[in-house]
Amino acid sequence: MEKIKFPVNSPEEVSLDKVKSDRREIDRIVMSEILGLSDEDQLEVYRAVIDLVKSRIEKANSVERKEHKKGIDLEKLTENIIREIESFT
């Protein structure tokens, strides 16, 4: 699996003018008009979200993934069932 890369090196690189205009308009309505957050508060929200996402991506990249088995190992299943039946006799 390909590792995920994050486009921003640090949350401090974020600024309100770098947010996509359609996203920014929705966020402005919610954060400013509804929640009453100042521009500086909104910037802190963006930075906190970016920091959280970056941390999650780094964690995901650091975990080794196991291959999932495709299908059931019928031989192993049969052996386990026989073992269980034998334990009752």
Write up what this structure looks like:
The protein is built from three helices and no strands. It has 89 residues and is mostly helical. It has one domain (11-88). The longest helix has 24 residues, at 39-62. The protein starts with 20 loop residues before the first helix and ends with a helix.
Strand tally: 0
Query: What's the number of helices?
Result: 3
Largest sheet: none
Low-confidence stretches: none
Helix content estimate: 55-70%
Structural class: mainly alpha
| Strand content range | under 5%
Give the radius of gyration: 25 Å
Give the averaged pLDDT, no decimals: 81
- List SSEs in N-to-C order: HHH
Taken together, the total number of domains comes to 1
Q: Tell me, what's the shape?
A: elongated
Compute the separation of the termini in Å: 47 Å
Multimeric state:
single chain
Kindly list the characteristics that best describe this protein.
single chain; 89 residues; mainly alpha; 3 helices; 0% strand
Summarize the structure.
The protein is an all-alpha fold. It has helices at 21-34, 39-62, 74-88. The two termini are 47 Å apart.
